[in-house]
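User: Um, what's this?
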Amino acid sequence: MTDNITSVGGGSRPDTGVSALKGRTGAGAPAETRGKTTIADGVVAKIAGMATREVPGIHSMGAGMARAFGAMRERVPGAGGGATRGVKVEVGERQAAVDLDVVVEYGVSIVDVAGAVRTNVISALERMTGLEVVEVNIAVDDVHLPDEEEEAERNEGRVR
């Protein structure tokens, strides 16, 4: 058996004991393990960002300046949606670690939202990439108050 390890990632499959990301060559190897699979850090960050945004109670992502620049970037046509804003990842051959900066809605249990985010991010990453997620660190940077949107809309309407 020859291993083709130049890939990022590598969750092992319990039914074969062979990593689908590592790869194995030869006529006797299952087809899904012949060759290598490389997963870019940006892919892992996008999956983590989307999984975080799916959780009820998350208002937005990114620390103060990142949110301000992201809001401006979203107004520019073709500039991208900022799926990785507030997400930092470290990806190894078989494992990944994720750091998230989030803003939660006022009134939600931060502990419950953080637990739901961890569960959703770990589940999505392990299912989609095969990587073992060793940790998901969450920094709650702000709490979104309901009247903040009304005030922003009033100020936006005044200046044109």
